[in-house]
Amino acid sequence: MNREEALDLLKKHIKNEKMLAHCLASEAVLRALADHLGEDKEKWGIAGLLHDLDAEIVNNDMHTHGLETEKILKQKGLDDDIIEAIKLHNEEASHGQKRTEKFHHALAAGETITGLIFATALVYPDKKLESVKPKSITKRMKEKAFAASVNRETIKECEKLGLTVNEFAEIALNAMKKIAPQIGF
């Protein structure tokens, strides 16, 4: 499946503009991570783009989120490793399976940090990613009440990729800044 086909599939299943922006941001972050780590940018980007494909189907039920995506993507013939990473980005629905591969940790951490970055941008007067600095993100990581639903431990899985939180925040922020007009930030 190429990017255009993946984007068409995403838009078929996701109608909420904020969720689409999150998926596009996740794709950008995963592509940047893959580039930085010498991994397959297409594969990682597709995983970032499609990881929340079933969010509206399962009404954000975290006990089933990812399982419908797994079924849809198997029917489409997507690579098993992409499907596995997508399924494992939400360990609640993975029936005891744990993230073990670099790809798994990258997707989980990469899609999670987008929420913290978006929330950080929203506290700036202009509400633009351009105003956000990496150190602002790492500062917000320590504020548990800020964007409280963002799982900091999942973001810290970047360390399993050999990155500090500061390095990871910079890579993710820069990736999102490149697509800011597409995602409304």
Q: How many individual domains?
A: 1
Name given to the CATH architecture? Orthogonal Bundle
Please estimate the helix content.
55-70%
Query: Which structural class best describes the helix and strand composition?
Result: mainly alpha
Overall pLDDT level: 96
Largest sheet: none
What is the C-level CATH assignment?
Mainly Alpha
Report the total helices. Answer: 10
Contiguous runs where pLDDT drops below 50 for at least 5 residues: none
- DSSP strand tally: 0
Question: What pattern of helices and strands is seen along the backbone?
Answer: HHHHHHHHHH
- The global form is globular
The amount of beta strand, in percent, is under 5%
CATH topology: Hypothetical protein af1432
Instruction: Compute the CA-based radius of gyration.
Output: 15 Å
Distance between the termini: 28 Å
Itemize the secondary structure elements and their pairings.
Blueprint: H1 3-13, H2 17-37, H3 41-50, H4 67-75, H5 80-88, H6 102-122, H7 134-141, H8 152-155, H9 165-178, H10 180-183
Summary of the model, kept short:
The chain is mainly α and 185 residues long. Helices cover 60% and strands 0% of the residues.
Structure notes:
The protein is mainly alpha-helical. The chain has a single domain, classed as Hypothetical protein af1432. The chain has 10 helices and no strands. The two termini are 28 Å apart.
For this entry, give a set of tags.
globular; 60% helix; 10 helices; mainly alpha; single chain
